[in-house]
Specification:
The chain is about 30% helix and about 15% strand. The protein is of the alpha/beta class. It starts with 15 loop residues before the first helix and ends with a helix. About 55% of the residues are buried. Keywords: Hydrolase, Signal. It holds the Pfam family Amidase_3.
């Protein structure tokens, strides 16, 4: 669930260029790339407390620091501890933004404070959603982000995480955007999972709308972000076997929004990936499976690499 999502997304028609690119990538993928079903609004409620269904199976996160500054902290993973291997992504920088923070729910006052998103104001962050069994979206996003980082670094990319469970809450949505901008990232991917009604299944990629106002101006990144999103969507289908969302995006797996600060404030190509619906039992079974999460990371990594290679 997008960390600054306060209204249900609405379906918008995609440009022909993006739809064509996704259709081409889906030709060899699972059935279901084109079929749309009845849309429904998404749930933006807080994560339900409860035991987490599965520990993360990826590279371990940095040790949390209770005294970590909630603002102005250095992004995680900015300086690799060992030289990166030479590969097809050598010289490229990718910022991965794990949606939410596992301890946001302990800092509701702080995350409810409003921040400027250029065209208005929104909450600093939210808790995110969870499965009905209590597996938090924030834990899911960290796990997948670790896997994605490892895959991209293996190809030579410099990878920066906006956070790594190393701060008490946040970062706020404006800081998340700023980390990507200051890194001069070639691509930014914000990892999420949705919280919608039972029966709503599949993934979707959120693209920035053309927005200009206040401190927001996406005019220079709309086209490149659409290309990045289409490539990720196509590879995600191919690698995970999951179909595009049956409730958002008209069967394309792509949705365009102008109300998300993380996209509005970005000056570099950026998308959100909603990997599935945590509130649907069938999707939840995938999201809580370590093997499927590795496939999800692989699909995103392949899409990012395809975009960066041109």
């Amino acid at each position: 669930m997008p960390y600054d999502d306060s209204v249900p997304p609405t379906r918008r028609a995609r440009p022909l260029l993006v739809a064509t690119a996704l259709a081409a990538l889906c030709l060899t993928a699972v059935a279901g790339c084109g079929g749309a079903q009845d849309p429904a609004g998404t749930d933006t409620g807080a994560a339900k407390p409860g035991p987490e269904a599965e520990a993360t199976a990826s590279a371990s996160a940095s040790t949390p620091s209770p005294e970590a500054s909630p603002t102005g902290a250095q992004p995680s993973g900015a300086t690799p501890t060992a030289p990166l291997p030479q590969g097809p992504l050598t010289g490229r920088t990718v910022v991965i933004d794990p949606g939410h923070n596992p301890r946001n729910r302990e800092h509701t006052k702080e995350i409810n404070q409003q921040v400027d998103i250029g065209t208005g104001r929104k909450e600093c962050d939210t808790t995110g959603t969870s499965t009905n069994a209590g597996y938090a979206e924030a834990r899911f996003t960290l796990d997948v982000s670790h896997r994605l980082r490892e895959l991209l670094q293996a190809q030579g990319a410099r990878v920066v995480l906006t956070h790594d469970d190393d701060r008490p809450f946040g970062p706020c949505i404006d800081e998340r955007a700023r980390i990507g901008n200051e890194a001069k990232a070639d691509a930014v991917v914000s990892v999420h999972a949705d919280g919608s009604a039972v029966g709503n299944r599949g993934f979707h990629v959120i693209l920035p709308a053309a927005v200009k106002g206040g401190g927001a101006d996406t005019s220079k990144i709309v086209k490149s972000s659409a290309d990045l999103g289409a490539r990720i969507a196509g590879h995600f289908v191919r690698t995970t076997g999951s179909a595009p969302s049956n409730y958002i995006g008209g069967g394309t797996g792509l949705d365009t929004r102008g109300d998300l600060g993380g996209l509005n404030l970005s000056t570099v190509p950026k998308v959100f990936v909603e990997c599935g619906n945590m509130r649907d039992p069938e999707d939840a079974a995938l999201l809580t499976d370590a093997g499927w999460r590795q496939k999800a990371a692989r699909g995103m990594a392949d899409g990012i690499a395809a975009y960066l290679k041109g």
